[in-house]
Amino acid sequence: MTSHPVTYAAPGRINLIGEHTDYNLGFALPIALPERTVVRFSPDGSDTVTVGSDREQESAQIALVTRPGDSEGWAAYVAGVIWALRQAGHRVDGGTMSITSDVETGSGLASSAALGCAVLGALITAGGITLDRQDQARIAQRAENEYVGAPTGLLDQIAALYGESSRAMLIDFRDTSVQPVLFDPDAAGLALLVINSRAPHRHAGGEYAKRRDSCERAARDLGVSSLRDVQDRDIDVLDAVSDPLDVRRARHILTENRRVLEFVAAVAAADFDGAGALMSDSHRSMRDDFEITTPQIDLIAETAVAAGALGARMTGGGFGGCVIALVGDSRIADVEDAVRRAMSHGGYAAPAIRRTRASAGAALESVR
Fold it and tell me: Is the dihedral of CA 280, 286, 292, 295 positive or negative?
């Protein structure tokens, strides 16, 4: 336990491939981003946490005895971590907290998980609490699931906590094991571009929850607890699923899991053409079977590939947000120009495009 101010940071993430597979106990391959949320916490022994953010005009006061429903908006993510940590049997001290971040919000880059993991890291450091990264991930997830009410899987939290420079993370959600995978397209003369559509990422009208329900119904029709249990069977196993919509949702999950493993094999063999093709296949599956893309997102992905990208796909839960594209260095300008023109001609907002790379995960920055 310390009485000194603690500064803790956690990154956003993008998912290279493996969308909506986490709650189906499948595979995913995220990377941590260079952008980070930084939390500075000064414990004072009081019974409240007073928190301010560089993105909000007013601060919020959160009682240590907070319960779901007590806080709303951005403050609920902080309050949820306090609540979940206490629910896990740990002491939390009051104090003052300030939050700064360059992780874009509303873009599908897991800004909420970055915030939750940074808040959690600051609180456990200040309290002298020892938790491994698996426990931290589950506490941060519980904060979002049960306090905020967002039915997310563990992908975002694990990505924020396990990130490494030049490494992706192959996550097997059956046992939440994490295997580092070398991912350094820069060394091969390639760039990973993040194209922010500027269309707010949101689980529109509870669509995320509907997809989850559909997958669970398909599993019940198959007589298994999770779609992962039929992963090694041929796709025609889905003939036993009664609802055609549930068939399509489950088909995305089974084929997406295969694509994750094939992508890992491709980058290990330096087959970036193959990796790019898998990204594009993943996007089509999200568009046609899982139906979580938008016309704007589809246009970005299609335009990027037509302009020379090896592959492109939406990243994140869907219904807005970002597209990622794997592009040779010599084609970056062509892809950027083509996407900007397509957005302008389509009447959409100008996208933000930047190069990114796999970066370090959550970490303590200072105690002083």
Answer: positive
DSSP 8-state code for residue 350: P
- Residue % of the chain over a pLDDT of 90: 92
- The candidate with the shortest Cα–Cα distance to 358, out of 225, 192, 207, is 192
Neighbours of 356 (CB within 10 A): 17
The pTM of the whole model exceeds 0.90: yes
213 carries an active-site annotation = no
Pairing relationship of beta strands 95-101 and 48-53 according to DSSP bridges: parallel
Say if CB 185 and CB 192 are below 8 A apart: yes
Give the DSSP letter of residue 104: P
- Cβ atoms of 325 and 334 closer than 8 Å: no
φ, ψ of residue 364 to 5 degrees: the values are -70, 130
Catalytic residue, chosen from 47, 70, 102, 156, is 156
* pLDDT at residue 201 greater than cutoff 70: no
Q: How far apart are CA 274 and CA 58, in angstroms?
A: 49
Distance CA 95, CA 43 (A): 4
